[in-house]
Amino acid sequence: MRFDTVIMVDWSGGNDRGPTPKADAIWASVARGGRAEEARYLRNRQEAEDCIADLLEAERARGNRVMIGFDFPFGYPRGFAQALTGRADPFAVWDWFEENVQDSARGNNRFDLAGQINRQLGGRGPFWGNALARDIDGLPRRKDDYHNPLPDRRAAEHQAKGAFTCWQMSGAGAVGSQVIMGLPVLARLRRRFGASVWPFETLSSDIAIVEIWPSLTLGAAPEGRIKDAWQVEEVARAVSALEPEALAEMLDVEAPEEGWIFGLGFEDRLRRAAALPPRLSNSCFALPPGVHWTPVAEALEMLKARLAPVTEVVELPTAEAVGHVIADDVTAARSNPPLPNTAVDGYGFAGGRDAGVHVLPLAGARAAAGDAPGHVPAGEAIRILTGAALPAGVDTVVLQEDVTLQDTQIAFRGPVRQGANTRKTGEDVVAGERAVASGVRIGAAQAALLAATGVRDVRVRRPLRVAVVSTGAELVDVGTSARDGQIFDANRPMLLEMVRRFGHRAIDMGIVPDDRAVLRTVLDRAAQDADVVITSGGASAGDEDHVSALLKEAGAMSLWRVAVKPGRPLALGMWQGAPVFGLPGNPVAAMVCALVFARPAMAQLAGEAWPEAQGFDVPAAFSKNKKPGRSEFLRARLRDGHAEVFASEGSGRISGLAWAEGLVELPQEAVEVTPGTMVRYIPFGSFGL
Questions:
Q1: Residue (of 652, 665, 688) closest to 537 by Cα position
Q2: Three-state secondary-structure class, residue 346
Q3: What per-residue confidence (pLDDT) applies to 653?
Q4: Tell me, what's the pLDDT at 194?
Q5: What is the pLDDT of residue 125?
Q6: Which residue has the higher pLDDT, 281 or 323?
Q7: pLDDT 10s digits, 413-430
């Protein structure tokens, strides 16, 4: 089950709210692929119905499947439809209200209609809550003056915490007015667009109308935001980010008369979806007009500015968080060290000592690491071992090698400065201060610091999922038979291992022949299973370059002609919300482009700080006359402090990659290199390999 677009509407049963955006009005937001548009303020139901119809028309014209959610009950408790219309059919109720509701921007007849229904059902119920100044026959003002011949709530509302009854027409939490004023609109939209209504019908239409309550999973809005506006954005974004399997499971409900609340029973899963950051927009890779050849530095700056984390934030015990990227700055729960302690084995006492021989009596006990700090009387010393907390009355330690021990006293020669050989409380990190910054991948050192400062749990990002695809009719997997004209796929094993070394989760999507339909299917699956897709081959503009062709068809393709050797064409685009990096097919060019462009981009998508490859200047052991116009990366290694480069610059010479231990980067400008010329050498370790 998949929808291209999710629209969320917060409905209102009140009158026109005027031109200035207000709370308790109608708000709507549109989301696609986990990214929501800014909420739209709709001042009355007439404007809202027109706006929604326009949105649905536009989505249908684009060929998109749409789920549109409204935040009020689509049905009443069992028995009402039969009592009102003579049929146990929720759509009969919709049609009845469409026929009887009178609504304009200036007012409506909802309270009179509720009183009419109560009288028709023979009493002062099931509706209650008259907010008008005049009395209405059959509609009590308060609940204590009414009788309900029907159940007070639907089955869904018994399960939903804090749900209000749909019979309440006025006062805090009244949804009765929303339902009466909303069902006629739903009836018209269903008829006009042939929409399917969940859970009353099978969702066979390209438009599905669904009951969704933001209050099911969302709380208070951020400061300065109107709650309803914020909520429709968050719900639309979260629902549009759901995996198809999760969406199908939530829609698998039978409630043929009363209806149901989408996501009820799956609140935690919806909250996790809401915690996901927005997906990237289709325009994030678009180049400015007139750009033909982009220098490497500019290309990297554009990627850095346009990409944002796409991975979900979760909380894990610190012991399980190693290898994950920290989502928020982590503050120390405890100072390190938590108490002043000694850095050496020796004898502790108070105050420093000047030059000369000093004799101090020993206190009866000793202090070792792990002991609770005691107290040492003034003028006495105590035996103290490395790591022990300083007892009260001790602020200085003299090394045991500098001390003479005799019976119950020690002697040593000064001077000894006050505080010698001790560590202060929080000398490393103070409680409440930042211990580890967001964007850092937790390694052994960070794990040690988090543990030392008492951090039990840490908010981290789930690993970035990277799908790797090889394209080309000439490719076969190693271990299979290769016909004349076929070659073994080297790029995929190389790229999968690089992705793992970068700290991400690699997903092998196999080899795709030069068949656009097959490639489309594989990309669809990759976008569902991964956060990022890396392809090699088919990224230029030839007849068989299907990657770039499909991205162009999707309207989310930019062919970056980067001024770099090896490489040049780099196809960047979006496929169903997932960024796609289309690398060159030649292995050397694929590896260089993956290191220079894909690696920092994926790090930022994973929530890491943008990594800069650290290089250093060394003398060259080679000669080269380089022309201006593009940066060049040569396969290289260090020997005797000099940079050697591989004998051939051919992009198909994979042996050069195995020979190399890094890259020499030559600038975009013209340069003449002779032995001894200083060149920039970047070891593969600086790229995370």
A1: 652
A2: strand
A3: 86
A4: 96
A5: 83
A6: 323
A7: 999 999 999 999 998 999
**Cβ–Cβ < 8 Å for 30, 223:** no
Residue 8 to residue 71: CA distance in whole angstroms: 8
> What pLDDT is stored for residue 538 in this prediction?
63
Q: What is the DSSP string of 567-620?
A: --EEEEEEETTEEEEEE-SSHHHHHHHIIIIIHHHHHHHTTPPPPPPP-EEEEB
Taking phi over 0 as left and psi of -120 to 50 as alpha, with beta for the rest, 369 belongs to beta
User: 680 by DSSP, 3-state: which?
Assistant: strand
Instruction: Decide: helix, strand or coil at residue 98.
Output: helix
Using an 8 Å Cβ cutoff, are 473 and 369 in contact? no
Helix (H) or strand (E) run with residue 119 in it = helix 110-120
**Residue 288: predicted pLDDT:** 60
Please enumerate in sequence order all residues whose Cβ is within 8 A of that of 571, keeping only pairs 6 or more positions apart, or say none: 535, 539, 540, 547, 548, 551, 557, 558, 559, 560, 580, 581, 582
> What pLDDT shows up at residue 546?
61
pLDDT in tens, 2-26: 898 999 999 998 888 888 888 889 9
Q: How far apart are CA 486 and CA 469, in angstroms?
A: 17
Residue-averaged pLDDT of the chain = 89
Contacts of 364 (CB under 8 A, 6+ apart): none
Please, are residues 466 and 505 in contact by the beta-carbon 8 Å criterion?
A: yes
Tokens of 62: 């684009």
- How far is Cα 362 from Cα 381, in angstroms, rounded to an integer? 5
Cα separation of 203 and 210, whole Å?
Answer: 10
Among 90-99, 278-287, 506-515, 616-625, which stretch is predicted with the lowest mean pLDDT? Answer: 278-287
More confident residue, 26 or 523: 26
pLDDT of 586 above 80 = yes
Measure the CA–CA gap between 84 and 652, rounded to whole angstroms. Answer: 77
What is the DSSP-derived secondary structure letter of residue 387? T
Cβ(14)–Cβ(177) below 8 Å: yes
Interior angle at CA 341, CA 336 and CA 343, nearest 5: 100
For residue 601, give the 3-state DSSP assignment. Answer: helix
Q: Estimate the crossing angle of helix 176-193 against helix 90-100, to 10 degrees.
A: 100
Query: What is d(CA 233, CA 422) in angstroms, rounded to the nearest whole number?
Result: 56
CA-to-CA distance for 332 and 429, rounded, in angstroms? 7
Q: Quick one: angle between helices 176-193 and 45-61, nearest 10? A: 30
Q: How far apart are CA 684 and CA 689, in angstroms?
A: 5
CA dist 458 and 443 (Å) reads 14
The rounded distance, in Å, linking the Cα atoms of 276 and 312 is 4
Q: DSSP string of 541-555?
A: SSTT-HHHHHHHHTT
Distance CA 562, CA 300 (A): 10
CA distance 299 to 285: 10
C-alpha count within 13 angstroms, C-beta hemisphere, residue 42: 24
Residue range 623-632: mean pLDDT, rounded: 89
